[in-house]
Every structure is written in structure tokens, then in C-alpha cells.
Amino acid sequence: MIDLRSDTVTRPTDAMRRAMASAEVGDDVYGEDPTVRRLEEEVAALLGKEAALFVPSGTMANQLALALHAQRGEEILVGENAHVLLYESGAAAGTSGVQLTPMPGGGLFDAYTLAPRIRPPAFYYAKQAAVAVENTHNHAGGRVFPQADLVELADLAKLRGLGVHLDGARLWNASVATGLSVATLAAPADTVSVCFSKGLGAPIGSAVAFPASRRDEALRLRRRMGGAMRQAGLLAAAALYALEHHRDDLHADHRRARRLAEGLAEAGFGCDPALVETNIVPFDVDRPAEAFLAEARELGVWLGAIGPERIRAVTHRDLDDDALDAALRALATLARE
Ligand SMILES: Cc1ncc(COP(=O)(O)O)c(C=O)c1O
């Protein structure tokens, strides 16, 4: 099978497994794991933030950050189809009691969209606490959040007393695509989540960054959410290895995604290669997505659905040029005659 469902399907390499096996560890609930500490310091420095915590998943990183921004009954404005809204099992509402309100624009939005949605304080409104953006935007097809828009909307948010959270599960991809450092991309946000388990190829792990003054609260929230781990240095070692050795490889994932998009467009699928900026390739088909997925699977290609007739393919480090060509050849036979 050629697995194009997600960049989360990558397996740790032998070298990464060796780094994990030789990691120095301690009990991280007591704050005694030197490898976790090293990862948290490195991530905070990379993102230009004061502090960071290692957590098991991107979902926990996001939800912890949202809970730092908003109390129960308060509101956070998010882009349409945001991961925190669609794909985190209702955690903001169910776990933290926070109301997420989506804004139009397909996920990417600007200060002009945000401005009229910031309400004056009144007891009958939910108190607005923060704005959350996603870069790259998963559901929008790996689109990069335009940095000028982010700077502008974060300025507006701050002026109106709102915090800013950046879901940077694939901020590494945005950095490679734009040539901007992750610190520059993260600068407008107060809190940032990043994942090591997606394009970077680590098996498990994410981090959430925040101001140092929030560290005690963040530690309490992580514990409450069940994310305080013991000898987690084994996992942090994989993340450190990925940061050091795998970031540049994202260029190859992006190159392959563009090639895939061009091939799909040539074959007759509804796909605009100009909109493929990173490693996610959305495309439209002429039949129900579930039927298409089943047909593709029969031909040895694993894909995901993101709409009634909309499919998603994701390139990743466990996919080479030969696999990509084979996938394209197979998918071309399913194109409109
Ligand atoms: C944009 C974005 N944020 C957060 C997450 C959540 O990460 P996890 O699956 O590790 O909880 C994902 C997962 O794909 C994602 O795409």
C-alpha cells in the first residue's frame, strides 16, 4: 500500500530508534528528565518563546493553550474548519467549557474579518478571550497563513485585549515553504503548539510554548489533562533527533506534493497545483468520496476524504519518488474518462 492519508503515518528510522534507546531519562513528573528538559528549552528557543512543555499530542498542546487563554464560559474566535474546532473531539467545549466561534474564509482570515467580530463588553455576551490561527492550515490543504495578515490581526487582537494562539502542528512546513524562521512565524502569537509526529517523523510528541509567567498553570493543566509523563525522555529524544535531522527533508515532501498536484490536474481531477504550498494536496473527484477511496484502495493507494467529493493526499518522508509515480499512475486510471 502507498499510504497518502497523512504525514502522521511515518515510522521512526533506525537512527532515531538508536537515539531513543540511548536517551538519558528521569521522572519528568518530578521535572527530572534531562532529555525532556533539553527538548523544552530547545523548542522554546526555536520559537522565540520563554517556556515550553512537552506533551503527548498536538490535541493536548492546543487544548492546554486554549485553557491558558480562556476560562469556562468564555469564547475563542477561530478560523473556519480549524483543527481545534473540527478534529479535537469537542475538547474545548467538553473538557474546558470554552466556546469556539468560527469565522468565515476557509480557515485563513485577516484583521478585516476579525474586527467586526470583536464585541464590546456586555454581560449578555460570552467574554471573548483569544483568537486562534492555524499554520499551515490542515483542512485548507496545507495553506500557509499569510504572515502579514497574522501580524495585523494579532496587533488588533492585542489592542482589544485578546490573546493569540497559533496551532503550529505543521509550522515547520510553513517555515520551509516561506523561508521565514519558526520564531518569526510564531512572533505574533502568545502561545504556540508544534508537533514532532507529523512531517518530522517522530513517533509521538508535541510541545506547547507560552510566557514563563504561565508555567505553573501550564504544568497543572498538563497534569489535569493526563499529559504528565514519567521517563518521557525516550520520546523527547526522538523529537530532538527529528528537529536536528529531518527539518530540511520537508523540502522534498513539498516538491513531491507539487508533482502530485500537477499529475492529478493533468489526469483530469479538480486540483489546482498553484494552491499546493506545502505537503497536503486536496482534489475533487466526480463521485462520492467514500466510493473513490475504496477504488483507490483496491489499486493500492490509501487516501483520506475531506468533503463529500473532496479527497486529500499528503506527502511524507516515508514516500519516495517511485511510490509517488506508482500512486499517480494508479489514480490516473480513476480519473474522469
Ligand atoms: C493542524 C493540526 N493541529 C493539531 C493536530 C493534532 O495533533 P495530534 O493528532 O497529535 O493530536 C493535527 C493533527 O493532524 C493537525 O493537523
Descriptive notes:
There is one protein chain. The protein is of the alpha/beta class. It folds into two domains: 12-245, Type I PLP-dependent aspartate aminotransferase-like (Major domain) (Aspartate Aminotransferase, domain 2, 3-Layer(aba) Sandwich); 249-332, Aspartate Aminotransferase, domain 1, CATH 3.90.1150.10. 41% of the residues lie in helices and 17% in strands. It contains 14 helices and twelve strands. The protein has helices at 14-21, 34-47, 58-69, 83-86, 91-96, 111-114, 147-159, 171-178, 182-186, 215-224, 233-245, 250-267, 289-298, 321-332; strands at residues 2-3, 51-55, 75-79, 99-103, 128-134, 163-168, 191-195, 206-210, 280-284, 301-302, 304-307, 310-314. The strands form three sheets. The chain has a seven-stranded mixed β-sheet, with helices on both faces. Strand 11 (304-307) and strand 12 (310-314) form a beta hairpin. The longest helix has 18 residues, at 250-267. The mean pLDDT is 97. It binds pyridoxal-5'-phosphate. Pyridoxal-5'-phosphate binds next to helix 3.
